[in-house]
User: What shape does this take?
Amino acid sequence: MKVAIIGGGPLGMEAALYGARAGFEVQVYERGRLAENVRQWGHVRVFTEWARNRSPLAERLLQERGDTLPAPQSTSTGNELADYVLRVASLPELRGRISPQTEVISLSRERLLKSDLIDDVRRTERPFRLLLKTAAGEAIRHADAVIDASGVYATPNYLGNGGMRCPGEREHGARIDYHLPDVTGRDRVRFANRHTLVVGSGHSAASTLRSIGDLFTEFPQTRITWVVRRDVPMHGFPYSLIPDDPSPHRNDLHLRANELSTHPQVTFCPRSTVEAIERAGRGFRVALNPGADAFHFIEACDNIVAHTGFRPDHTLWQELAVDVHPATDGPRRLAQSLIFHNHRSGVGLSTGYAEKTPSMADDANSTGVLHAETVGGESTLRQDQTSESGDVGGDEAVADRWRFQPDDPALLWSGEPNFFIVGIKSYGRDAGFLMQNGFRQVRNVYRLLSAEAKLDLYEGELN
Assistant: This one.
């Protein structure tokens, strides 16, 4: 069986390695360099450890080759993760199976429209057609199955009210940072002693806030206006910490962002939306809607960083019968499962770490409390998770959101036979994806393609 894999990032390379070892004829198509999207945030250190960002299969094969790997409990930068992808790509199993600088422009079935043979098993008898764009021109390739692991980093959301472009965003979009800027490195001069507007309340926002905050002491005129469209949880801070978080670095990141929300050089604006952007000299003039009748104008804002999430690009799927959830933009079956578990945990879509809405779940009534304490002679902040009854560590609802491991092969059903979406793109607009969930998806794809329900090249090492 010929399997085409779109995307040469960590999950695309894992899908290729797993498929090759399982006896499939795999081919990876990457429109840029391998791990191109990861390189774009290469300066950022991830909060998940290597133990959960590399698969047991790849780790075993690299060690058998004699490669020395970082300690399982250490973390990596994006560039280090991209370098790891290159090491996986160099394994003999993938020789001749990778096509960089090759963009998949569109997909279809041979001689079929998406409206032909609906719910008919005969649809699987027609191979997929892939229109490729390379330096040598365009070409058609065929495959029996397709795995889309292309990610979402190339399609960020807009920052305006309601998720649409606000007036001025289209005109000035080229000067807005929709991706993670290298605040303390390459882009330092743009942020030091400058006023930056940061929009969003996810991991990217917390990372950029932390980086700008690291400039405060050396560059005391550095300022931040932090805009979040939602209200804060009951504890009064943007992020709710998770008891016994399997990624302690995530809690460290969120705690630092919570601290910055009260910093004198930060203006924190919850319940606010961006209404309009216009140029003001070398900077911007931004209209914010704080929920009142009048707009508040920010003068002399030097930078705008829009960390408002990402959405999957459906262009590839236009001639395939993919069943997309109307709210998440991801495959419907997985989306429904994610939404169910998000509601059970009392959180909203893509904001399990930032939004805590007790009305969404009867058992989701935790609060987090920041305490001042002295550590090593310095005053610090400590955030405890407490339930409304006052029990510390009682926030099982939030913890459940991160312990949810969707490992049912049926969740990979896309509507189009033998077409699978894996990785963060499969979560649509939900930002709760973790790499280990992607490894489970890869394993399940090949269980479905091989019709071997117990196929496990991870040899039971992936929980």
Notes: The chain has two domains: 2-153+311-344+404-450, 161-231+270-306. The radius of gyration is 23 Å. The longest strand covers residues 366-375.
